[in-house]
Amino acid sequence: MNILHEILTCIVNFSIIIFEFMGVAVIIAAGAQGICNYIRRDPLTRLRLAKGMAMGLEFKLGSEILRTVLVREFGEILIVGAIIVLRAALTLLIHWEIKNEKAEMES
Prior knowledge:
Elements: H1 2-39, H2 45-67, H3 74-106
Helix pairs in contact: 1-2, 2-3
């Protein structure tokens, strides 16, 4: 049973690293593209940047959810829970911004 726990821990730790890396990579790529689009004065810059940031935050949120598998103490659960709530709130705000930006573009 201990071996299975160690295997699960290794898999989850590796998955967390991959999700964190992907989240950071997506946010950096979206930011770089946003800078280029801003310089070109592309009217869709805000919308594309918001979509990229939302996608990056989704990966980061996934890593935090995976992190809950490894938590053993109540204090750690509160910290991870607070991070999840903050990232989820950021994601909701960005999705709200995307929705408003799309509505503004259509009118």
